[in-house]
């Protein structure tokens, strides 16, 4: 034991602050959150230290899970919402990645004004999300929004973007794409710059066309960056609630799992913490399953990650 | 490039030779057109908020928006004078909270990232995995348990409690990124430092931290943004008193039932965005390098 | 100034099975001595040096510096300076700051640091570059800064880990001489690691040869060349490498291609009872003889012209197999490709015999 401490105490001392913060502020609340899923806790029966009211909620077993997983409308139509969440996640990440990669490749060329372009293109990342949300909500407005004005003047149909239709989902996907592209672009630009130039020269000498160079040099060279940022992108997008919540509000057409959890949590007559937590645990489970499959697939392709 | 007389003559003789770096005119125009188009889309919403911020609330909701319409700086004056809520106090709270999050978040992720990069120790793998797990959990749903724990620690309603909560969301990604960045600093540098007489902490503080500036800049940017624009926790954990709100919470006063004061909201938004954009501008030249090494090494 | 000793020091990397990177190394280095650790990659030479520096654990045994047991002392307490293969210059510090960093950590006064740095810079011809960052220096200059960083500290032991391997060939030869001269002048005990046996032979007072974590032999360059302790050392030291062949042995001598190479009575006695021995002879101890004389029949396959002399590679039949031999001949009259020549032992005192299985030197 002494030898163990002798050898590792530097390392443990350096990770200790992070471990303490995460354990206290994540693991403990997480455990409590999981416990809530087996109760009927809500605003009315939770212990309230301010009013010195003791807790009166009861243990209900798996009732919350049964309610949610049976997919009833009064519990957020879980399966429909899950499908919408998947559509939302994959279309956002798809656009983030393809547009981000395209722009990164443009920026990776010798082009005049490259630094200026880069600064302008990363700007959406620097603007706080709630401000971007206001800006887009304003621009999407059906009556006085600039977007519909532009569409009308171009003779195109002007949908009610944030109304009770699937346009609401389209709108939030557009906004989230706008928000998320800079991160992908920057990460992929870094990845592109780390591909040694002589690989391209070797490919050119071997007679590869530009497309073949992209296919056989660029994409494999970006693989490790891509696998990381795509996984992160999927996790973040799956749980991205401010954009939808601030733009579309509690609109069921743009509802994803996490916004519904938040809705149950904050609105409604009785702030249903139990159902919100149940949703939280289900979201975590879905992501865990996904991450496990993802990593296994990567490992099968020989990627050590 | 140096040119001597003979090589100049050769160029003249063959009239025009194709250089490897040359691009056809059409390709150049297409490249710039694509970049200009993308930049316009990236900047437009911010530009439009700025345009709106100059209009009175009533003019901001006209069916056919114009670029300028009774534009003035009145919205800014009113927002700053505190007529619409104590904007300057909110601003101060936000700056304090964001800076504390940045300093604490970067420091603890740097120590953890360094340990993960340099030392092998039992539990390292578990630690890195738990970071990924933390990213997966929808934090919004943890508000009640978090609230309970902040009460237990006596930190509810204080900025430090909120700062710690922000750290938990920022730290996992920051640690991953800094670990990746530290991996690119050769271990020889550490050893040279040890031989020169530094302790392991000394190596970290005096050699690695100065060398990791690009990585630290990106991490700082990320941590700052995490705290600067956050709404849900800030509205749940800070006391309801007007002078203890952050900007993100305070700005909700402009969004009242059925009637949004778009002009004022836009002006306030621009004021909020400025510090974030300044921070962004300061670190942007490090962003590509810093983020890449972090993400590549994962 | 201090002497260094390894006392059965081992470094064991955990694994299955555990790897003994350095295995019970025992070595005494005298005060002021220049000792070179040489061996192929993976021989444990760098690990041995890093154990001395305190950068690797000493899992068994002990290490003493200046008579003091430093086995559990961290690097900063060992009074050593190290030159790394990559130089490991601090990129964010100027040359002067790099060189003075250790002194600054020790709390030496600024003026004194400045004086010492300037003195070392003068010695290494770096005065012009003191305010530059390492990035703005050439490879040779960086190498000298790394040396300067070590000198300024005035440590009791210098440790150098392949300090020349990132230089081009010409600069390497030049710097080799400079380092040896500098060490002579400062008189500081120096342990120098290299994989290049020429470097080892030209620089070291003594050379320790390692293989698979085990010390093979530690002696002066001359003694290593003349009396290698085993077949490995014999093949490793000397360029081109010694011809080492397993051949049958009779009571008169070793049998090569029908020719009996006579051996001394002592040698035959040492090989007593063996049917075969590993027979070693350096290319320079062989020679081409006129076709009438007795010798081995060799077909020339390759001639390497070195200017002053030439190396002739060719095939000789030993038993049923054809074996390659290298012979050093006068550069002005080399044989041509495909030619059949007669090769004979020029100097019988330069024949080395080794045990065919253990590789140990056979001697009375």
From TrEMBL, chain A:
Per its UniProt record, what Pfam families does this chain match? Answer: BPD_transp_1
Which InterPro entries did the record assign? MetI-like, MetI-like_sf, UgpAE/MalFG_permease
Q: Name one GO cellular component term.
A: plasma membrane
Looking up Gene3D superfamilies in the UniProt record yields:
MetI-like (1.10.3720.10)
Q: What is the topology of this protein in the membrane according to its UniProt annotation?
A: Multi-pass membrane protein
**Where does this protein reside within or beyond the cell?**
Cell membrane
Residue ranges annotated for the ABC transmembrane type-1 domain, each copy included: 82-294
- Annotated protein name in UniProt: Arabinogalactan oligomer / maltooligosaccharide transport system permease protein
- Native organism: Lentzea jiangxiensis
TrEMBL record, chain B:
Q: Which UniProt keywords apply?
A: Cell membrane, Membrane, Sugar transport, Transmembrane, Transmembrane helix, Transport
* One record GO biological process: maltodextrin transmembrane transport
Gene3D superfamilies hit by this protein: MetI-like
According to its record, how does it sit in the membrane? Multi-pass membrane protein
Chief place of localization? membrane
Q: Where in the cell is it found?
A: Cell membrane
A Pfam match is: BPD_transp_1
Domain of life, per the record?
Answer: Bacteria
Please state the span of the N-terminal signal peptide per the UniProt entry: none
Gene Ontology cellular-component terms listed: plasma membrane
The transmembrane segments are 26-51, 87-115, 127-153, 159-178, 216-241, 261-283
**Which parts of the sequence belong to the ABC transmembrane type-1 domain?**
91-283
SUPFAM superfamilies membership? MetI-like
InterPro entries, sorted? BP-dep_ABC_trans_perm, MetI-like, MetI-like_sf
Molecular function terms, GO-annotated: ABC-type maltose transporter activity
- According to UniProt, the name of this protein is Arabinogalactan oligomer / maltooligosaccharide transport system permease protein
TrEMBL record, chain C:
Q: Which InterPro entries match?
A: AAA+_ATPase (IPR003593), ABC_transporter-like_ATP-bd (IPR003439), ABC_transporter-like_CS (IPR017871), ABC_transpr_MalK-like (IPR015855), ABC_transpr_MalK/UgpC-like (IPR047641), Mo/tungstate-bd_C_term_dom (IPR008995), NA-bd_OB-fold (IPR012340), OB_MalK-like (IPR040582)
Spell out the SUPFAM superfamilies in the cross-references. Answer: MOP-like, P-loop containing nucleoside triphosphate hydrolases
CDD domains in the record = ABC_MalK_N
One GO CC term of this entry?
Answer: ATP-binding cassette (ABC) transporter complex, substrate-binding subunit-containing
Can you supply a Gene Ontology BP term from the record?
A: carbohydrate transport
The record, for NCBIfam families, names: PRK11650.1
Q: Which organism is it from?
A: Lentzea jiangxiensis
Residue ranges annotated for the ABC transporter domain, each copy included: 7-237
Q: Name one GO molecular function term.
A: ABC-type transporter activity
What is the name listed in the Swiss-Prot or TrEMBL entry for this protein?
Multiple sugar transport system ATP-binding protein
Q: What is the lineage of its organism?
A: Bacteria, Bacillati, Actinomycetota, Actinomycetes, Pseudonocardiales
SMART domains per the record? AAA (SM00382)
Per UniProt, the keywords (alphabetical) are: ATP-binding, Nucleotide-binding, Sugar transport, Transport
């Amino acid at each position: 034991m002494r030898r163990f401490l002798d050898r590792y105490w530097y390392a443990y001392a350096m990770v200790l602050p992070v471990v303490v913060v995460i354990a206290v502020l994540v693991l403990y609340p997480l455990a409590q959150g999981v416990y809530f899923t087996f109760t009927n806790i809500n605003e009315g029966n939770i212990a309230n230290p301010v009013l010195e009211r003791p807790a009166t909620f009861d243990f209900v077993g798996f009732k919350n899970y049964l309610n949610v997983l049976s997919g009833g409308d009064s519990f957020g139509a879980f399966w429909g919402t899950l499908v919408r969440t998947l559509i939302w996640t994959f279309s956002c990440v798809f656009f983030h990645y393809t547009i981000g990669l395209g722009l990164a490749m443009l920026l990776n060329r010798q082009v005049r004004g490259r630094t200026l372009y880069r600064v302008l293109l990363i700007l959406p990342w620097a603007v706080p999300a709630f401000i971007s949300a206001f800006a887009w909500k304003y621009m999407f407005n059906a009556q006085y929004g600039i977007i519909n004005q532009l569409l009308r003047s171009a003779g195109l149909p002007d949908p009610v973007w944030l109304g009770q239709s699937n346009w609401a989902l389209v709108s939030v996907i557009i906004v989230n794409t706008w928000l998320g592209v800079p991160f992908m672009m920057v990460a992929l630009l870094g990845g592109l710059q780390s591909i040694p130039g002589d690989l391209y020269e070797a490919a050119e000498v071997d007679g590869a066309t530009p497309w073949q160079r992209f296919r056989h040099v660029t994409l494999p060279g970006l693989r490790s960056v891509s696998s990381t940022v795509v996984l992160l992108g999927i996790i973040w997008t799956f749980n991205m609630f401010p954009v939808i919540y601030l733009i579309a509000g509690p609109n069921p057409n743009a509802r994803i799992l996490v916004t519904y959890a938040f809705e149950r949590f904050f609105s409604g007559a009785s702030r249903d913490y139990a159902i919100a937590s149940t949703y939280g645990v289900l979201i975590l489970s879905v992501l865990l399953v996904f991450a496990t499959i993802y990593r296994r697939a990567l490992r099968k392709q020989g990627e050590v990650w | 490039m140096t040119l001597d007389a003979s090589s100049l003559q050769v160029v003249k003789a063959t009239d025009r030779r194709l250089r490897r770096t040359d691009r056809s005119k059409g390709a150049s125009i297409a490249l710039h057109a694509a970049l200009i188009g993308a930049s316009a889309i990236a900047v437009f919403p911010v530009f439009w908020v700025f345009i709106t911020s100059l209009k009175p609330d009533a003019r901001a909701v006209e069916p056919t928006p114009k670029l300028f319409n009774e534009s003035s700086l009145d919205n800014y004056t009113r927002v700053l004078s505190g007529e619409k809520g104590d904007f300057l106090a909110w601003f101060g709270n936000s700056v304090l909270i964001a800076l504390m999050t940045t300093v604490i978040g970067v420091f603890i992720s740097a120590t953890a990232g360094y340990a993960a990069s340099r030392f092998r120790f039992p539990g390292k793998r578990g630690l890195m995995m738990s970071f990924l797990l933390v990213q997966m959990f929808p934090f919004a749903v943890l508000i009640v348990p978090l609230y309970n724990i902040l009460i237990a620690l006596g930190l509810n309603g204080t900025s430090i409690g909120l700062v710690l909560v922000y750290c938990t969301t920022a730290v996992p990604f920051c640690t991953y990124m800094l670990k990746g960045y530290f991996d690119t600093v050769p271990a020889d540098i550490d050893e040279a430092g040890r031989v020169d007489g530094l302790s392991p902490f000394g190596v970290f503080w005096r050699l690695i931290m100065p060398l990791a500036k690009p990585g630290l800049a990106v991490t700082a940017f990320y941590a700052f943004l995490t705290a600067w624009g956050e709404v849900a926790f800030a509205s749940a954990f800070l006391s309801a008193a007007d002078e203890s709100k952050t900007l993100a919470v305070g700005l909700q006063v402009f969004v009242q039932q059925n009637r949004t004061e778009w002009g004022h909201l836009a002006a306030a938004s621009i004021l909020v965005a400025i510090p974030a954009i300044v921070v962004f501008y300061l670190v942007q030249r490090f962003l590509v390098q810093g983020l890449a090494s972090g993400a590549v090494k994962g | 100034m201090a002497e260094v000793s390894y006392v059965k020091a081992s470094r064991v990397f955990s694994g299955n099975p555990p790897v003994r990177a350095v295995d019970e190394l025992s070595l005494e280095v005298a005060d002021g001595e220049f000792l070179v650790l040489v061996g192929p990659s993976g021989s444990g030479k760098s690990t041995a040096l890093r154990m001395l520096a305190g950068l690797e654990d000493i899992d068994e045994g002990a290490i003493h510096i200046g008579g003091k047991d430093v086995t559990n002392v961290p690097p900063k307490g060992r009074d050593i300076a190290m030159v790394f293969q990559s130089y490991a210059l601090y990129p964010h510090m100027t040359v002067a700051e790099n060189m003075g960093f250790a002194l600054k950590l020790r709390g030496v006064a600024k003026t004194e640091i400045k004086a010492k740095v300037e003195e070392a810079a003068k010695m290494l011809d770096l005065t012009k570059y003191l305010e530059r960052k390492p990035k703005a220096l050439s490879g040779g200059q960086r190498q000298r800064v790394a040396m300067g960083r070590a000198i300024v500290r005035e440590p009791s032991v210098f440790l150098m880990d392949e300090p020349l391997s990132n230089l081009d060939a010409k600069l390497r030869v030049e710097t080799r001489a400079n380092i040896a001269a500098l060490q002579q002048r400062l008189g500081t005990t120096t342990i120098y690691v290299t994989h290049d046996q020429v470097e080892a032979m030209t620089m070291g007072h003594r050379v320790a040869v390692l293989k698979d974590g085990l010390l093979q032999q530690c002696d002066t360059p001359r003694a290593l060349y003349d009396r290698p302790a085993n077949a490995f050392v014999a093949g490793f030291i000397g360029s081109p490498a010694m011809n080492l062949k397993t051949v049958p042995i009779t009571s008169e001598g070793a049998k090569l291609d029908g020719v009996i190479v006579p051996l001394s009575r002592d040698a035959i006695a040492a090989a007593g009872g063996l049917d075969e021995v590993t027979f070693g002879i350096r290319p320079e101890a062989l020679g081409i003889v006129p076709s009438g004389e007795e010798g081995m029949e060799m077909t020339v396959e390759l001639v390497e012209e070195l200017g002053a002399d030439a190396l002739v590679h060719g095939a000789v039949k030993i038993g049923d197999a054809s074996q390659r031999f290298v012979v050093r001949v006068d550069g002005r009259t080399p044989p041509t490709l495909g030619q059949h020549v007669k090769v004979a032992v020029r100097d019988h005192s330069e024949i080395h015999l080794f045990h065919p299985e253990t590789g140990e030197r056979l001697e009375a």
